[in-house]
Amino acid sequence: MDIIITPTRLSGAITPPPSKSQAHRLLIAACLAGGEERVSNVAESQDIAATKACMVALKGPGRGLPLLPCGESGSTLRFLIPVALALKGGGVFTGRGRLMERPQEPYFEIFREKGIFYEQKDGMLTVRGALTPGEYALRGDISSQFVTGLLYALSLLKGPSEIRLTTPLESAGYVDMTLDALARFGVEVRYDGERAFHVPGGQRYLPADCTVEPDWSQAGFWYAARGIGNAVETVGMNLHSAQGDRVLETWAAALSQPGEVVLDLSGSPDLAPPIAAWCALREGQVTRLVNASRLRIKESDRLSAIASELGKLGADVDEGADNLTIRGVSTLRGGEADSHNDHRIAMMAAIAATRADGPVTLRGAEAVRKSYPNFWEDYAALGGVFTVAE
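User: That's the sequence. What structure does it adopt?
Assistant: Structure tokens below.
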């Protein structure tokens, strides 16, 4: 779906949708405890639907390897590869878009060491074998999602296990969210705060009632809207959340002051698109977004997509190998932008369009369904104006 956005200032109060990251974690734990219905305030995005469908397949009866449709959800795929091994002796994972291009080598290194079969071809990943208690050496600098997947699975095994990180852990806040979810369902993990996770064996997931919090990564778009001159107030956020993207509150304070700002994206890469839109309109100020190489392996190459699409609208953005340098301008211009089939790029363009001099045609606006299905309704409720292109 292509839309034409008429630049209009937004105003009003908005509560972002429930956290997709937290919902994945709580739903998996709840299903392992036998009751996903006890998790409330879950937004039915495409990614969450994928996790639900896969958990139904993993908890259901039947012999043979289950078929696990992950859609475009990297969280679903990486969280459930070890869980499938623990519950069913493996599974056949399918995906769409760029999902199967995203790296799984940290798991493959383990599989080769442990004698677990894996094969990736024709858009499918097949894993088969026994996940056994013991020590698991794992890189921490590619994605924290591998740590999360192993934590869920190792707690189901009969004996104790240890995850030993061979490189520093990036996006540690996401692992904190995992540990919080596990604790809510009675699962114990001892983390030394640096390189080792100790997981006792023989544990059971216990039923619990949980409510998913509003999403700090999605709040980034509304914070950015306010930062560039829209009278938008973001409400309902938990300032003490386990979500690592709550760093947004600190970043917002820094960006609201004059002067050069350097933001380290290694722990919160999902904030890059909204923050970039904000920085593009910090008139006369320079912002550097650094340690962002993992943005290249998201739904799109987000470093390239951010630079390209904001650049088309008149922003001054220089793309580096793992960074962006943004020099703020006073206003953007109309024209065309493409979502790259990436939900966060689509929302970035929508926020940036509020400060354009002319209409912005956004290609692939439906990409928001992946994580924020009601984004365009919320945008309109705040006064945003757009029409579907003929």
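The chain is about 35% helix and 20% strand.
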